Amino acid sequence: MANKEDIDFTYTTTDKIHRLAIGETLDLSGAMYDGDFSLTLEQAQRKKHEFITENLNIKKGSKVLDMGCGWGPYLNFISKQGADAIGLTLSKGQYKACRKNGFNVYIKDVRTVVPEDFGMFDAVVSVGAFEHFCSIEDFKEGNQEKIHRDFFNTVYNLLPKGSRFYLQTMTFTNNMIKPDAFNIHADKKSKEYICALIEKLFPGSWLPYESDMILRNAEPFFKVINISSGKLDYIETILQWRKMFRRFHLFKYFLYVKLIFENVFSKKFWHLIYVFRIQPIKVCFECDLMDHYRIVFEKK
Asked: In this structure, is residue 168 part of a structural domain?
C-alpha cells in the first residue's frame, strides 16, 4: 500500500496550489455529469455528492465515515445536511486544511479502522482511496485480491446489516500493459512512458483490474445496489481542472515558481511536472488502459 510518505508526495506537495486552483474544499476526484457536459464542474461535483447521499440514505443525524476524505468536499456537503461526519486521510496537507475548515478529520490508515476507534456508522464513503491500497510489489506477490477482500471486511465490520457503502475508484482494464514494461525513459507518446508517469504520480499504488475484481472481493460481504462507469465524466473533470490550474492567480504562480526552485534537483518532482503537462490519467482513459467506477454496496 502507499504509505504516508507516498500520499504526502501525491497530495501534500501541491496542497496550496490545488486549493488556490480548484477551491478550499476541492474535490480531486471524478465528478458526475451523466452525459450532460453543459454542467459546470461545481454542479457536477454537487450532483455526485447528492447521488451518494441519496443512495446511502444519509439524513440529518446520520453518522458517516469518509475513508480517504481528501480536502473534505463530501464532509462539507453532508455536514451542511446535518450529518455527523468523520474523515480519515494520510496526507498532512489535507489533514491541516480539513482541520482549519472545521471538519472532524484524523490521520489514520483507513484499512486499520475497527469499531473500537470511532464506533459503528450508518454509512461509509470512499472516493479515490481504494486506488492506493495495493502496491506494485503486492500485485507481483499475488496479494492484491486479499488486500481488497480485507478492506471490504473492514468496512463490513463498521456497518450494521442493511447499511450502505459507496466506493468510487479508477481501475485498470485488461488492456493495461504489465508493470515491468513501464519505462520513464521511453518515447513520451508511448504507453510505456504514460504508464510510468502514472506510477510516479501514485507511488506505492496499483489499481484493481476492471469492476470484476472489485465485485468478486466484495461479494462475501456486500450486494451491489448500483454500478456505473464514470470514465467519460472523469475525462471532462480533468479538462476542467486543467483550465483551473492554468488560470492566472498571482500567488498560485508564485507557488509554482517556488516549488520549481525548491525541487530543481528532484527527479520525482520533475516527473510530477510532466504529469501536469501530459495528463496521463486522461490519456489512459482515452486509450482504454483505465476505467472508472461508482459502486453502491449494501451490507448482507
From this structure: yes
Query: What's 217's DSSP letter?
Result: H
Distance in angstroms (rounded) separating the CA atoms of residues 261 and 68: 30
Lowest average pLDDT, out of 43-47, 94-98, 134-138, 267-271, goes to 267-271
By CB neighbour count within 10 A (0-12 exposed, 13-18 middle, 19+ buried), where does 180 fall?
A: exposed
| Other beta carbons less than 10 A from residue 137's beta carbon | 12
- Other CB atoms within a 10 A radius of the CB of residue 187 amount to 10
pLDDT in tens, 191-213: 999 999 888 878 889 999 999 99
Q: Report whether 91 contacts 12 (CB < 8 A).
A: yes
Q: Which residues fall within 8 angstroms of residue 267, CB to CB, at 6 or more apart?
A: none
Give the sign of the dihedral formed by CA 189, CA 192, CA 194, CA 196: negative
CA–CA gap between residue 201 and residue 240 (Å, rounded) = 19
Q: What pTM does this model have?
A: 0.87
Task: Answer whether residue 18 is part of any domain.
Answer: yes
Nearest 5°: CA angle at 207, between 297 and 212? 45
Question: Contact at 8 Å (CB) between 237 and 44?
Answer: yes
Q: pLDDT tens across 242-258, in order?
A: 887 667 666 655 655 66
The DSSP output letter for 4 is H
Q: Indicate whether 230 belongs to any domain.
A: yes
Say yes or no to pLDDT of 7 above 60.
Answer: no
Residue with cell 520549481: 260
β-strand partners of 81: none
Residue 115 belongs to what domain range? 4-180+202-267+289-299
Gap between the Cα atoms of 37 and 31, Å rounded: 11
How do residues 9-49 score in pLDDT, each as one tens digit?
555 656 666 666 666 567 889 999 998 999 999 999 999 99
Per the structure, the count of domains in the chain is 1
- Average pLDDT (84-106) is 94
